[in-house]
Design brief:
Structural class: alpha/beta
Radius of gyration: 14 Å
Number of helices: 3
Number of domains: 1
Oligomer: single chain
Strand order of the largest sheet: 1-3-2-4
Helix content: 10-25%
Number of strands: 4
Largest sheet: 4 strands, mixed
Strand content: 5-15%
Low-confidence stretches: none
Order of helices and strands: EEEHHEH
Distance between the termini: 40 Å
Length: about 100
């Protein structure tokens, strides 16, 4: 558990969604205030990590805040932001095209 006494000051790399109940921090220090529901709804991995249970309807087992975020290792903010587009379309109706 990481605790700091500094107050949180958002940077342009941070993503803050109103009503968010969890803060993730990537390896490069960017913070993402998002809804844990999207992580626990479909993933047993995240259900266990965030709630300690195998069902999506349990509350978070810990409060992750800007000063004590859930740290995601081996992920940078660019990749995590791209992943979050699955849940949060930043530009409604405009999707990135992908070549397979």
């Amino acid at each position: 558990m990481q605790t700091t006494s500094k107050s949180f000051t958002p940077t342009p790399e941070d993503l803050i969604i109103r009503g968010a109940d969890i803060v993730f921090m990537t390896d490069d220090g960017s913070k993402f205030h998002v809804h844990a529901y999207f992580f626990t709804r479909e993933s047993v991995y995240w259900q266990q990590k965030l709630t300690g249970h195998n069902e999506p309807h349990h509350p978070l087992s810990k409060r992750y805040t800007p000063n004590d975020p859930y740290i995601i290792h081996d992920v940078d903010s660019h990749d995590f932001r791209k992943f979050l587009r699955v849940f949060y379309n930043m530009r409604y109706g405009v999707e990135d095209s992908i070549s397979l």
